[in-house]
Amino acid sequence: MTAAPEVHPDARSVDDRTLLAGSRADPDQFVTLFDRYYGEIYRYARSRVGAGVAEDVASETFLVAFRRRAAFDPGVGVGQVRSWLYGIATNLIRRNGRDEERRYRAMARIPDEPSDAGHDERVVVRLSAERIRGELAVALAVLPARDRDVLLLMALGGLDHHEIAAALDIPYGTVCSRLNRARRKVRAALGVDPTEPTEHKGL
Amino acid sequence: MDDINVIQTVLTEDDEHGRAEARQQLQQAIAAERGSVRRGWRWTLAGAGLVAAAAAVAVVLGVVAQPATAPSPGGDVPRTAQEFLLAAATEAAKAPTTTGKYWHTRWDMYYDARKGALGQNGDPIVKVVEEWQAADPANPSWSSFVQVKDGQYHPEVGKADLFGYGAEAEFTLAEARALPADPAALRAVLVKKAEAMGIDLGQLTSDGLDGYVFEAVTGLLARAPGSPAQRAAAYRLLATVPGVELAGTATDSKGRPGVLLRYNGSRKTEDVIIDRTTYQVLAKNRYGTQADKTMAARLTIQIVFTAPGWTNQEPPH
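Predict the joint structure of the above. Result:
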C-alpha cells in the first residue's frame, strides 16, 4: 500500500473516562461515547416514554452531555460516564413525565377476557401477561417520579445503588430508601408478598 | 420471577431508532464548537450514516429518475453499470495530465432543515464548501464554508490546514495522489484503510466493506486529484463492487443531467449522478427513513460537486 500507515487506537479499548477527558480538547472523541451508548440509552428511554419521545430523549442526552463534558467530575467511581449519561436521560425523561404516565395508563387498559379463553392456552398466556402488564403499569403510573427514576434505573438500566446515586446526584442512603419504597409498592401491585425480603441479585 | 425481572420483561422494548440522525446532530454540535478550525464540513458529509432500504426515487428536488430503458435524448443509455463504468475508465485514461498551484474543489450540500425529505418543507438549505489545497505543503491552503442566503453565494475564505479525500476525509492529498493505478491494488488500499479505521468505519458507512468501497471510490472520483491512470482504476474498481447498478437517468439540483448509478447495499442505498460525457461525478444522493419508520426511501441530502481541478488562480481572500 502506498498510503502512509495511520495510528488509530482501538476505540473500544480506550476507557470511557479517557475518552471523555480527551474529548475536551478533541471533541470528535465524544462520538465514540455516542457509538458505545446510544443503543442502551435509547432503549432505556424507549421503555419509559415510548418510541416517539425516546429518539428525542436519546439524541438530546448526548447533546447535553457533550455541552457539559467539561463539568463532568471524574472522581466519583468506576463506570460513571455511563451512569452520568443515564442520569441526564432520566432528567430529560422527567421533563416528559406526562408522556411516561400516559404510556403506563395506556398499557393498563386490559381488554375484557373473552368467554372461551380457557380453551386456548396461548390466549391465556397472553391475557395473563397483559394483566401483569396492566397491574405493573398502574403501579408505575402512581409512583412518585423520584422513586420511579431509581427503580427504573435499576430495572431497565441495570445500574447498581452506587451508580444510581452518582447518576441522580443523591446520597447512597436515599437510593436505598427510595428503592425499598418503590419495590414494596410494585410487589404489592403484582401480588408478590410485599414483606418478602427478596434482594435482587445480579445487578 | 421477582419484581425487577417483571419490570424488565414487561417494559423492555428491544429496538432502536434515530441513531443516524442523533449522531448527525451530535456532529453538528461538535462542528459548531470547532468553528472555523474545521469549517464544519465533516458533519455534513457524515450524513453517510443515514440508512435506507427500498429505493424508488420519486420526483424530488430536481432528481427525476427515469427507467433505464426509457429513450433518452442524449443517445443510447448504457445497458449495465459495468459497461458504463468501463467506458468511463477508457475515457478517463485518455484525459490529459494537469497541474497547478492549488487543487480546487467545491461541493454544495442540499438538505432539509427539519429532517424531512428534500423539498418536502419548501426550499432546502444549501451549504457550500470550497477548498484550495496547495500542491506545495509549504504554501498556505484555503477554504470557505458558508450557507447560501437568498440564493446568493458569498465565500468566506480563510486559511485552513485540515483537508482530506475519500468517503469523507480519510486520505490526505499526498495519500490520494499516491493511490495505485490498478483496481485490485486500489481495493487493497481501501480495505486496509477501512481496517485501520475500525469502529470509525461505521461513521462513514453503515454497510460494511463494499459500502465503504463504493463511498470511498465515488468520493475520490468526485473530489480527489488523480492521474488519468488512477481515475481509470477507480472506475474499474467501481464496476466490480457488488450491488452497483444503473438506475436510469437523473438531473441534479443544479439542473445537470446524468446517469444514476446506484449502490444497493444490505443496509443502505446510495446514488451518484455521473455525467454521460465527461463521466465526472456530479452529485451524491443520500437517503433516510420515513418519519413513520417505514423504510421507504426519502432523499435527505444531495451533495452537488463542481468539477474539481488544478488552478494557479489565487482564492478570493
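Residues 19-34 of chain B form the longest helix (16 residues).
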